[in-house]
Amino acid sequence: MSYAKEKALALSAVRRACGLTSSVFNRLVQDEKLVKGDKSPVTVGDFAAQALISTMLHHTFPSDPIVGEEDAAELRLDTAESTSLRERIVSLANEAISQPLVDKESSEWGIGPGKEKTAEDLLDAIDRGNYEGGQTGRMWCIDPIDGTKGFLRGEQYAVCLALIVDSIVQVGVIGCPNLPLDLSKPDGGRGCIFVAVRGEGAYQIPISSNSSTPSRIQIPPTTDSSTLTFLESYESSHASHSTSSTISSLLGITSSPIRMDSQAKYGCLARGDGNGAGGVYMRLPVSGLGPTASYIEKIWDHAPGSLLVEEAGGVVSDARGFSLDFGLGRTLGKGENWGVVAAGKDVHNKVLEAVKKALEGEGKVVSKA
Ligand SMILES: Nc1ncnc2c1ncn2[C@@H]1O[C@H](COP(=O)(O)O)[C@@H](O)[C@H]1OP(=O)(O)O
Ligand SMILES: [Mg+2]
Ligand SMILES: [Mg+2]
Ligand SMILES: [Mg+2]
C-alpha cells in the first residue's frame, strides 16, 4: 500500500518541528538567556515540538493513536513555573503551526496563518501521545527531540517520527538540523531530513529546501568488515564504549569510532558515512544484557532509524540477531531486546559473530534460539 499522504505530512511536521527546535536553541541556548533554575530549553523544545507534530497528525488522521515520548502533566500544574513554561510552549508551537504553507504542504493538515491553537488544545495534543502501543493497527511514534544532550551542546540531535502498522515500521522521517549534508565536509551545508517508506528506498533531503529533489541513499556494499567505521552514542552512559571497542578490534577495524547523539547515527549509516566504506551502528547496554540490561530501549528511539537503514540495504537486529519488535508496547521490551546492531546486509552476520564473541568474553552468553 502507498503511504504518500502519511509521508508528505510526516515530512512537513518534522521540517516545521526542526525550525522550532533550531529557534529554541538560538534564542535560549546560544544567546545564553538561560537563568539558573530555569526549565531547560530542551524541555520547552520537547513539549512544543510534540504539540506541533501531534496537532498535525490528529488533524489529518484523527483516529490514529500516537506513542509520544512526552506528556503534559507537568504543564497542567497551577504553579508560576508551570504557567510560564506553558506560555512559552504555546507561543512556540503556535509560531510553528501558523507559518505560511510552502510547496507540498496542505491547509487540510491544520497548519498555516490563522490556525493557532488554544493552550488547552496544545496540552491535549501532547497528551495524545500516551498510547500504550501494541501488536495490531496503526500508530505514530514521536521523539520530538532525540539526543537532548547533543541538542544542548549544539551538536547532533534529531526530530523523529514513524508510522507503525501491525508492528512493522512503514514510514520513517528523521530531521537532523545540525548534521552536515556531507560528513566529510563539516564546514559545508548543514541540516538533513532522512525519509523512508517501506519498499520505496531511503532518501536524504536538505532541510533548507522544501522543493529540492530527494537524493537516494544506500549503504556501500562491502564484505570487508575491517574497513567499516563504528557509529555509536556520544554518551558512554547510554551505550557501552568498551564493548564496542572490543568488537571493533575483533573485526580488525583501525579507524576511530564516530560518536554522535541521536538517530542521526542511523542516517549516517544509511548514507554510507565512514571513510567511504560505510559504518556499523552499535548500541549495547552499559551493564547487563536482556532481562538484566541497565536500560530499556524505547520504540521512538529506533522506529524511523531502523526502517531507514533497512531501506538503504542494511540489517537491524539485537545482539543475538533478532529483529527489533515494535509491537510490544512503548518499549522494545525488558528481556526481549538485547541492544541494537545495524550494518550493511553483506557484513551484518560477520559483525554479529564478533558481538557474540565480545559478549561471551564479558561473561554474557548470547545465542539465537
Ligand atoms: N541511560 C540511558 N541509556 C540509554 N539511552 C538513554 C539513556 N538515557 C536517555 N537515553 C536516550 O538515548 C537516546 C540518545 O541516543 P544516543 O545515546 O544514541 O545519543 C535518547 O533517546 C535518549 O533520550 P532523549 O530522547 O530524551 O534524548
Ligand atoms: Mg530519544
Ligand atoms: Mg527525546
Ligand atoms: Mg527525553
From TrEMBL:
InterPro entries: DPNP, Inositol_monoP_metal-BS, Inositol_monoP_superfamily, Inositol_monophosphatase-like. It comes from the Eukaryota. Coiled coil: none annotated. It catalyses: adenosine 2',5'-bisphosphate + H2O = AMP + phosphate; adenosine 3',5'-bisphosphate + H2O = AMP + phosphate; 3'-phosphoadenylyl sulfate + H2O = adenosine 5'-phosphosulfate + phosphate. It holds the Pfam family Inositol_P. Its EC number is 3.1.3.7. GO terms for molecular function: 3'(2'),5'-bisphosphate nucleotidase activity. It is an enzyme of class 3 (hydrolase). Its cofactor is Mg(2+). Keywords: Hydrolase, Magnesium, Metal-binding. The keyword Transmembrane does not apply. PANTHER family: 3'(2'),5'-BISPHOSPHATE NUCLEOTIDASE, PHOSPHATASE. Belongs to the inositol monophosphatase superfamily. This is 3'(2'),5'-bisphosphate nucleotidase. The gene is MET22_2.
